[in-house]
Amino acid sequence: MKIGLICRPFSFHGGIETATAGLLGALAREGHAVELISTERQPDVPEVPVRRVRVLRHPSTLRLLSFALAAQREAARRGYDLVQSHERVLRQDLYRAGEGCHRGYLAAMGRRPGANPYHHLVCALERRIFDLRASRHVVAISRGGGDEIARLYRTPSADLTVVYNGVDLERFHPEQRARHRAAARAALGIPESAWTLLFVGSGFERKGLGPLIEGFARLPDASRRGPGDRLVVAGKGDVPRYQRLAAREGVADRVVWMGPVPEVERLYAASDAVALPALYEPFGNVHLEALASGVPVLTSVHAGGAEVIRPGANGWIVDAVAAEPIARGLAALREAPAGGWSAPARASVEGFTYAAQARAFTGVYRRLVR
User: Fold this and answer.
1) In 3-state terms, what secondary structure has residue 204?
2) 35, 280, 293, 307: which has the fewest Cβ within 10 Å?
3) Are the beta carbons of 316 and 296 closer than 8 angstroms?
4) Is it the case that residue 11 has pLDDT exceeding 70?
5) Environment class of residue 272 by beta-carbon count within 10 Å: exposed (0-12), middle (13-18) or buried (19+)?
6) CATH code, 176-347
7) What is the pLDDT of residue 20?
8) Are 253 and 215 in contact (CB under 8 A)?
């Protein structure tokens, strides 16, 4: 089947980017002729033709609208059997809601569109997609995300499918600990004996970094455990704001700040637990990557990744994104169960492959073509 896949530029590291790259390869291995429609900033993709379109880069409303128009024109020129979009554009056969609902995101963050034209445009495009005027089918990436779409937009269940993301089970593997842990900790300045917590993500507020720092500061007996526990923060965000928070909480000397890290598997190898207590997160790939690496995950009920977490077995789920429940969850993860976290964490995600994801999409394609 000839598939046109619309997606903004991505590289081969980081959450959404890694998921898209893995899916493209798996779809090609399923026998589909996949072409990527993206902007001029998209690097080449092995074995996948890239159809680049010109877009206006500023302001954000014109960037979004110009990409939607250009992508639609390019898709119409190519004669695809089916057009799949990972972005909110004007028309597609299948829309993958990898970012969830913008309307749901605004509500979770306590915000309203107000006079912001970008929010109004995104919500208008989203409404057309989810009420099936601009799409024929919607794919959510978690059960919770699918339920939210159905609740907010009344999308019929027959036109809504859940397809979980895949993860690279070779790149993210418990064996990386033996390869990289010592060197990664040395580079971070973290003693081997220090229990180390990792936060990975861009968009610090949405992903709960503030409450996580507060919870980390309240972690019982943190200052009396040898060299003290450590928190490593990797990703893009307003670092000075959260550095000030860490200083107010008295843990500035135990928080290590990183930017985006291409070889994030080294950070998982250096860590004893991962935390993503998000206020809104359709399904962060961090959950799958950490678990595949044999590292337990603390998350929140607002994250789609909570659907793979079994508290006390491969991680912890907090009901509220607040300091005290986060501190209790971190304390639970710091006390590893008999046998450790690695084996049950890894086993919990071994079915989340790109091949399984591609097969699920293929099933949707066949229904749509019929």
Assistant:
1) coil
2) 307
3) yes
4) no
5) middle
6) 3.40.50.2000
7) 86
8) no
Q: How much of the chain is helix, strand and coil, in % rounded to 5?
A: 45, 15, 40
Side-chain-side CA neighbours of residue 182 (13 Å):
2
**From CA 150, how far away is CA 104, in angstroms rounded?**
12
Tens digit of pLDDT for each residue in 288-311?
Answer: 999 999 999 999 999 999 999 999
Picking from 295, 100, 88, 282, the residue whose alpha carbon sits closest to that of residue 197 is 295
The CA-atom distances, in angstroms, between 333 and each of 251, 316, 326 are: 19, 7, 11
Q: Tens digits of per-residue pLDDT, 62-83?
A: 999 999 999 999 999 999 999 9
Distance CA(358)–CA(24), nearest Å, equals: 8
- In the chain, the amino acid numbered 276 is L
Task: Give, as one character, the DSSP assignment of residue 157.
Answer: G
In the chain, domain spans: 2-166+353-369, 176-347
Greatest Cα pair distance, the chain, in angstroms, is 65
Structure tokens at 24: 């493209």
Non-local (6+) Cβ contacts of 84 within 8 A are 3, 4, 5, 6, 92, 93, 94, 95, 96, 361
Between the alpha carbon of residue 196 and those of residues 41, 169, 184, 245, the distances in Å are 36, 23, 12, 19
Degrees to nearest 5, angle at CA 281 with 275 and 285? 65
Q: Classify 33 as helix, strand or coil.
A: strand
